[in-house]
Structure formats: structure tokens, C-alpha cells
Specification:
Chain lengths: 431, 51
């Protein structure tokens, strides 16, 4: 499949089969896009040469995901409580529609044992400390990290740990611990103060921006070259979210991700009617992103990266997100769910870490799900980059993990085009 | 005129399974594999770089 898109006077040609990206003049791009253009013999020869090289109109892979029994990652809901009351929280402000509770060390330890036992020959395992707010249960986070490292070493394995936090409880000791033990830290901050404070409230109903900004800045200064993301959420109330991304970059944060909200709260929900504005906003952000990079003030925006040269193998690209098959969430009771977005829904409970079991029917459903079982993905140019999207979003909005949520798809496609523009700008030596 | 900007170094269907789960590291609402690199290659490059 050939996907042609235009931005200003530039034309881009992406070949899904080969994964190649080309730039073209208007005539060639329109011809490849199916428009009735009479090309010269020389122009046709260029196209024929690329086709002969397998870089245009190449056949698409039909490789199927390899069936694996081994598990590679767990998301530990270390705390089903939160010290913030964010309006858009999918996790019911930390409680996941149940009692507010902390994960005990015994449960976390059983989860680590479960992961180690089910990880087969896999050497590198991942554990994500998630909530609620994990720092409200920091002692269990620390004990779990030390236990996991000790047990992994005995088996010749190692763990990569990630924590997602709102930053409210960050202090010097926690920063030191994170920098020593966390491979990645995700810090929630939505952008401009008024945007952040509108939705990210303290328990007392006040905005939380002033309470977290300096702590997050201090953390990032101490982080050095280790991975982190300052991660924001945009809603229908800040469709001009490019300003929030640039605001965050101006604060000195150079690794950013700002995501569309997933909610059905009426005044926050992203709706189809918002898409044209959002797409323009991504384009504006992309322009500024390229400009800043040219000026030597570049930063990393998660969605504007696409690795077409060395990225993941084709098997990974068709395997969907891995939730419910090689990656699971564990809640404080020890119950297992396909991922954090399914947590608390009894229909999706898969087992319990103390019993060491996984529901074969639910696991089979996720294991069999891949790019090729998602009918709507078949004709999408972004399929080998998106990998079929988020199963949980698909289920929550369309009632089926196999039915992609169209609004998310539209935004994904726009971001992929922007990422290709960034790549083309870099490769063209414009940057 | 058409000019190639990027093409895969090799067309790989390796499936070694050593890559990270997609939704773990950077965000919790949007899954994408396109901005990942091959974990095995990245790790081996790091090891080479440290030598």
C-alpha cells in the first residue's frame, strides 16, 4: 500500500510493505496517489527503479505473531489510592471503583515470583509501579525492587523498573532511589498552570501545579541522562495543546509525551468534531518541533519519533500491545487483569498471583489478537507503526478489543505523518 | 522526482521476544511500536559502546 500525504508544498510517500519513506514532487506524488497524471519516461523510470528495489509497492508481510507462553512484564497497582483527584482519571481517582487500598509486600512479592516463574528463557523483565499514586506506598516499592533484583540475579535475569507518579511526594531520598533503581520514570504534568489546575486537583479541590512543578524540575535536573518522561494529558478544554507541549519544553523538560484524554466525561471527552482542530494542532507542534531542533533547542516528543530504519521487527509490529498475553496488571488483592485499563472489571479478571493461574480463555483471546484480526486495520497505512492500537480503548469505546476506536486512530495517523515529516526534515539535512 | 528518505536496514521477521511490552515505558494511553527500537540491537550497541 502506498500512502501519499502533503504538508504545505512538500509531498511524502510512505510504502507500507517495505516501510520506506520517500519525498516526491507534486506530479509524482499525485500519480502515486492515484490521480490521472501523465509522467515523463524519466519519471516513470524512477518509480520503476524503486519498485525493482522493493521500496515501492512492496508486498506486505503476513507474518503472524509467534505463540509464546512466557510473560515479560507486570504492571503492579502498588496503591489503589491517590493524593490527587484528577477529573479525567480513568482509575476512579485511584480507587478503580473499589475500596482505596495499598498493595502489601506479600502480594508484590507473589507477583514478582509469578513473573519470574512464568518468564521462561526471557532475560529482561519489566515491572511498572503504577497506581493511584505509587509514592503513597513507597516502602513496598522499595522492598519489591530489592527483592526482585535479588531473585532475578539468582536466575541470571534482570528487571527494568518504571514508576508513574504525579510527583507530589517526590523528595531528595525518593529522587535518589529513583535514579538508582528506576530505568524510567513517568511524571504527570499537563502543561500550563491554568490547564493543569483545571483538571489535576488536590483532595481539597485546589489546583496541584504549584505543588509539583518545582519537585519535577528538581527530579529532572538530578536525572542526568537516564530515561524519564514528563507526561501530560490534553482534553477538549485545551485543544491548543501544542502550547502545553512547548510550555513544558520551556521549563527545561526534554523528554515529553502529551496524550489525548480517554474519558467519556462530557466537557473533557475528545469527540469527532474536535479532530480537525487537533490535527492542525499536531501540525503546528510539528512545525515548532522541527524549528526548535534547527535552532539547537530540540526536545524529544514521544509521538514524533518513528524508527523506519532500525525499529522493531515485523513480528513485533503485528503483535498488538501484548496486554493479556505477555503483559498483565496486578491489583492490591493479587488479582490479575489484562492491563491497567481493565483492572477492577470482574469480567476481565484472569487469575490471582497467589494461585499462579491465568484464565486460558481470556489469555487465548488476547494471544490470538493481532494486527490481522483487526479488520479495520487492514487498509490503514499506519498499521505496522501503530500495531493495532490499544485493546482497552477498543473495548471501552467499541465493545470489542478487535474494533479500533476511530478517534484514537485518526490522531495516531496524524502523529505518524508528523513523525515522518520530522524524519524527512532530519534526513534532508534541513535540521 | 522521487527520493528515498528512509528504508529499513533489513527486513526482519526475527521475533526473538526480547523487546519491551509496548505500553510500559512512556505512556499509559497510547500504544505504538513505531517509536521503539529493537531492544536486542539497542542493548548490543550499548554493550559495544561500553567496551
Amino acid at each position: 500500500m502506498i500512502h501519499v500525504f502533503q504538508y504545505h508544498d512538500d509531498y511524502y510517500v510512505y510504502d507500507t510493505g517495505s516501510g520506506s519513506l520517500h519525498i516526491a514532487d507534486e506530479r509524482t506524488a499525485k500519480y502515486l496517489g492515484g490521480e490521472p497524471v501523465c509522467l515523463t519516461d524519466e519519471e516513470l523510470a524512477e518509480i520503476a527503479a524503486l519498485k525493482a528495489e522493493g521500496l515501492l509497492d512492496a508486498p506486505e508481510t503476513d507474518a503472524r505473531p509467534i505463540k509464546r507462553e512466557e510473560i515479560k512484564a507486570l504492571c503492579l497497582h502498588i496503591c489503589h489510592d491517590c493524593n490527587l483527584r484528577c477529573k479525567y482519571c480513568f482509575a476512579d481517582e485511584g480507587a478503580y471503583h473499589a475500596a482505596r487500598e495499598m498493595m502489601s509486600f506479600e502480594t508484590a512479592k507473589a507477583a514478582i515470583d509469578f513473573l519470574l516463574e512464568k518468564s521462561g528463557k526471557r532475560k529482561v523483565l519489566e515491572v511498572d509501579f503504577f497506581g493511584g499514586e505509587p509514592l503513597m506506598n513507597l516502602n513496598v516499592v522499595k522492598r519489591t525492587v530489592y527483592y526482585a533484583k535479588e531473585e532475578a540475579a539468582k536466575r541470571g535475569k534482570r528487571f527494568l523498573f518504571t514508576t508513574t507518579t504525579n510527583g507530589l511526594l517526590l523528595d531528595d531520598e525518593t529522587i535518589r532511589f529513583f535514579n538508582e533503581e528506576m530505568e524510567n520514570v513517568v511524571l504527570s504534568l499537563d502543561g500550563r498552570k491554568e490547564v493543569h489546575d483545571e483538571v489535576r486537583k488536590t483532595v481539597n479541590g485546589k489546583g496541584s501545579f504549584d505543588a509539583v512543578i518545582e519537585k519535577i524540575k528538581k527530579f529532572v535536573r538530578a536525572r542526568g541522562d537516564k530515561h524519564y518522561y514528563v507526561r501530560g494529558t490534553f482534553t477538549a478544554k485545551n485543544l491548543d495543546f501544542s502550547k502545553d507541549v512547548l510550555f513544558l519544553a520551556d521549563q527545561g523538560f526534554d523528554s515529553l509525551s502529551v496524550e489525548p484524554v480517554v474519558t467519556e466525561i462530557p466537557d473533557l471527552e475528545i469527540k469527532e468534531e474536535h479532530l480537525p482542530v487537533i490535527e492542525q494542532e499536531y501540525d503546528a507542534l510539528c512545525d515548532a518541533y522541527i524549528e526548535r531542533e534547527k535552532e539547537g533547542k530540540g526536545f524529544n516528543f514521544f509521538h514524533f519519533n518513528v524508527d523506519l530504519e532500525g525499529g522493531p521487527c515485523l513480528e513485533k509490529r503485528v503483535s498488538a500491545c501484548g496486554a493479556g498475553n505477555e503483559y498483565f496488571s496486578v491489583v492490591p488483592s493479587g488479582d490479575i487483569y489484562p492491563c491497567h485499563q481493565f483492572a477492577g472489571d470482574p469480567k476481565w479478571k484472569m487469575g490471582n498471583v497467589f494461585e499462579g493461574t491465568l484464565d486460558p480463555a481470556i489469555r487465548g483471546k488476547f494471544a490470538n489478537s493481532c494486527l490481522f484480526t483487526r479488520e479495520k486495520c487492514k487498509d490503514c497505512f499506519a498499521k505496522f507503526i501503530c500495531s493495532g492500537g490499544c485493546s482497552a480503548n477498543n473495548y471501552h469505546f467499541n465493545g470489542d478489543i478487535e474494533k479500533p476506536y476511530e478517534i484514537t486512530c485518526a490522531m495516531m495517523k496524524k502523529r505518524v505523518e508528523c513523525a515522518m515529516r520530522v524524519l524527512a526534515a532530519r534526513k534532508s539535512k534541513e535540521i | 522526482m522521487i527520493k528515498t528518505i528512509a528504508k529499513p536496514r533489513e527486513k526482519k521477521i526475527t521475533g526473538c521476544g526480547e523487546c519491551r511490552s509496548t505500553c510500559q515505558s512512556a505512556c499509559k494511553t497510547s500504544c505504538t511500536v513505531g517509536n521503539q527500537s529493537c531492544e536486542r540491537i539497542t542493548r548490543e550497541q550499548k554493550i559495544d559502546g561500553q567496551k
